[in-house]
Amino acid sequence: MRAKIVYFALAAVLVVYFVLVGSRGVMLIEQGTVITVAFGAAVLVLPFIGAWFLYQTTKFARAAGRLAQELEAEGGLPVDELVRTASGRIDRDSADAVFERRRAETEQAPDDWRSWFRLAVAYHDARDTPRARKAMQRAIALHGGPSPR
Hints:
The protein has 149 residues and is an all-alpha fold. It contains five helices and no strands.
């Protein structure tokens, strides 16, 4: 729940930032000189790009959350069997061992969104965020939900 609050707070801050940047772009365009119009147009593009990324990220997070809820209802969420250091960080060797099991599971059932979901969690625990995201995108696509890019 705390992660959702932080996410929405940061998203709200970003939206405010987009509005402020957009207003500055409009002010530059209103100046009417060639340079300020060019800068204003360039500045106006930034909020649109940011809003698109925010939308895509939100869509991805919601789809992943739906999969997690469904998997939890089935009793198929991966059990936290990772060894942690005294500070609470995940032990790298432990994460690698769990990853290898999840990878083998996914190779045996490459069309099962559940195995891809668990592989995504294992990638995340192994601190490989780009591959975790790709594995989660694959799980979402196999489940039949929207496929974020």
